[in-house]
Amino acid sequence: MAKTRQHRRNQKNGKTILILFLIVLVMVVVAGAFLFFRSRSTQTKPEDVLKKYMSYIEKQQYEKMYALVNPDSVSKEDFINRNQNIYEGIGCSNMKIKIKDSSDKSKDSVSYTASFDTLAGKVSFDNKASFKKDKEKGWLIQWKDSLIFPDLLASDKVRIYSDEAQRGQIVDRNNQVLAGSGPAYSVGLVPGKMNADSSADIQKLAQLLGMEAESIQTSLDQSWVTEDSFVPLSRISVSDTSLQDQLLTIAGVKLSTVQVRTYPLGASASHLIGYVGTVTAEDLEKHKGEGYTSESVIGKSGLESLYEKELRGKTGYTLVIEDENGEQKSILAYTEKKDGETIKLTIDSALQSQIYSEFQNDEGASVAMNPYTGEVLALVSTPSYNNNDFILGLSQSEWDTLNNSESNPMYNRFRQAWAPGSTLKPFTAAIGLSEGVLDPQKEYEDHGKSWQKDNSWGDYYVTTLEDYSPVTLENALVYSDNIFFAKTALNIGADKFMSGLDKLGFNVDVPFEIKLTKSQYANDGKITKEIQLADSGYGQGQVLVNPIHLASMYTAFSNNGNMIQPYLIYKDTPSAKVWIETAISPEHTSILVDDLKAVVNRPEGSGYAAHRTDMELAGKTGTAELKSEQGTQGEEIGWFSVFTTDPNLSKPILLVSMVDGVHDKGGSTYVVKKDATILNSYLK
Which end of the chain, N or C, is less packed with Cβ atoms under 10 Å? Predict the structure, then answer.
């Protein structure tokens, strides 16, 4: 029994010893592994350290770079300042290195070839990096300035000089400048010429410039300012002589001529041309690697933005090393400047200005085209803003006025889609003729001024303004009969009506240089209700049309049914490009053109106010009423689409104008009269 207990005791002790042995063994293995891998980590090859170091440069991770440097060779502060100022100043990117000699013959140095891109172009050079072995950290770089560039000494400076490219002009078809360089006055103060007590002067100056007095004082308090310094505060127009005279009565004020981006047409073409401004942080991020700096300007809106790449050109840069005396030691890279391109437009400045002058106080849009070539002669959105104000600088109150105005002058209306009203009726007729549900020779039953299909429509009626006879297609267009075209749409049917509008370019992008809102016939893409179909037939319901698209649709009447593509960039030999072939059949086109002539030339026609005796015009008015329920007075959008019919005219024109809010101005007749004035000026 005692032997048994002793045996068990021995077994237990043996197990304990075995467990302890295994624990010790595991600890030894772990420690060995730790020492092994630690040794491996400290034995990293110098070329690997160099590669890691270089990979941090374009990431701007200077602290990680310093962690790979022998701290005895340079202080952290000096290292970060030197590297950051140089690499970021020259726009370093796309860093690549190639090890030339990775043999073990010389572990304390590595020869390599480095290459990277800068603002001045690609830089490539052979170099050598020295290393020192640290017991704890392994191989560390012995840093010196020549690691950046082989010839760079600690006393040298790296400089990059820019040769700014001239921004390209935007000109009209007659080479009149729409955007270019022009003079302005920089308004500033010379401290030494100010009154001893200048507080009242600063208050007066702030009021004249739309600035805060505190802002002016802050500018004067900058560290670089001396008694003889010119401290710039704002810019003003050279044409504002009244303001200039007031400013010059203040002691210390000086006006200095500067060249700025200028827009001769101002508000007349602001939505089309746009404006430039100083780049933002967002701009720099978006255009990273494209050569922009915090001092660059960039197109902010309109064609200035759309053609930014072509207009800005390419700034020239010279990257050099200079010694402590400012003498040039070497040129590292050089790129020649390339001035921006001139963008020539099809726009006629005189016509653009005339249209703006007529509609400047209205909320609307106008497009003028050559109906045979597709050249856009004018593109106007009203009310407008003056893009020159963004160049000279807007005060906070001016900016607030622009943004808070109920008329929204910053809103570009020619890019949007609007209810077309009766300007759509010729195309409802075209679809009806194509589908065989409309006979141009037939006299239809008189339906009066109010009509509904049946009792299922409840209280809803389609109404029209005139009761006329006989009820024919021509008279329906002349009198702009809503009921006639509501019936036509119903007879066509929703599917064929939608298909017909699709054939006219609805629900697709208009092929145009400027992005436009797509035209639609339904908010969800499909006409599903009978009343909606009836309303759509005369351009209401949920139908929305972009003015430029509508102009293209009307070109079909000048081109045997082919819709012509609109364009803005001038061609020495203008030529029409068909957007939609046979949008309307030639036979039906001829019928509808005769009817549209009657709209303008018959005394009872809705477009008769534009009638001329020296030439023949054709067109269609439109009034779209926007209201929450039937029986109430709603807002009205007035339209007029009018075109010359003689292809041999020296200046053929198609003009589409839209004004929102004509219910108290005479409806579409208000637009007709203004378009007539424009045509009188253009066609004389």
Answer: N
Give the pLDDT of residue 34.
46
Q: How far is CA 639 from CA 152, 194, 598, 606, in A?
A: 70, 58, 17, 11
Is pLDDT at 100 greater than 90 in this prediction? no
Please state the pTM of the whole predicted model: 0.84
The closest alpha carbon to 287, from 250, 312, 322, belongs to 312
d(CA 209, CA 188): 11
d(CA 316, CA 79): 29
Residue range(s) occupied by CATH 3.30.1390.30 in the chain = 185-258
pLDDT in tens, 609-657: 999 999 999 999 999 987 555 555 568 999 999 999 999 999 999 999 9
CATH topology of domain 351-384+416-683: Beta-lactamase (3.40.710)
Contact, 643 vs 612, CB < 8 A?
no
Q: CA-CA distance, 449 to 481, in Å (whole number)?
A: 9
Closest to 420 (Cα-Cα) out of 326, 554, 286: 554
The whole-angstrom separation of Cα 615 and Cα 295 is 55
Distance of alpha carbon 236 from alpha carbon 393, whole angstroms = 8
DSSP of 402-470, one letter per residue?
HHH-TT-TT--GGGS-B--GGGGHHHHHHHHHHHT---TTPPBPP--SEE-SSGGGTT--EE-S---SS
pLDDT(27) > 90: no
Other C-beta atoms lying within 10 Å of the C-beta of residue 598: 18
Query: Which part of the chain has CATH 3.40.710.10?
Result: 351-384+416-683
- Count of residues in the chain: 684
Residue with tokens 């078809």: 173
Tens digit of each residue's pLDDT (9 = 90 or more) over 108-155: 899 999 999 999 999 999 999 999 999 999 999 999 999 999 999 999
pLDDT tens string 455-475: 999 999 999 999 999 999 999
Q: How far apart are CA 623 and CA 635, in angstroms?
A: 10
Give 25's Cβ-side CA count (13 Å radius).
Answer: 6
Q: What is the pLDDT of residues 557-575, one digit of tens each?
A: 999 999 999 999 999 999 8
Whole-number Å distance between alpha carbons of 652 and 645: 8
CA 415 from centroid of its chain's CA atoms: 12
Q: What is the CATH number of domain 46-153?
A: 3.10.450.100
Nearest to 411 by CA among 385, 388, 437: 385
Number of other residues whose CB lies within 10 A of the CB of residue 444: 17
What does R_g of the chain's alpha carbons equal in angstroms?
A: 38
| Lookup: tokens for 427 | 């195309």
- The residues of the chain that CATH labels 3.10.450.100 are 46-153
Give the whole-angstrom CA distance, residue 580 versus residue 138. Answer: 72
DSSP class of 192: G
Q: At what angle do helices 494-502 and 482-492 cross, to 10 degrees?
A: 100
Is 422 tagged catalytic? Answer: yes
Residue 256: Cβ within 10 Å count: 12
Helix (H) or strand (E) segment spanning residue 272 = helix 270-273
| Amino acid letter, 4 | T
Distance, CA of 314 to CA of 321 (rounded, Å): 23
The catalytic position among 296, 301, 353, 422 is 422
DSSP string, 502-563: HTTTTTS---SSS--PPPBS-TTS---SHHHHHHHHTT-TT-BB-HHHHHHHHGGGGTTTPE
CA-CA-CA-CA torsion sign (84, 88, 94, 98): negative
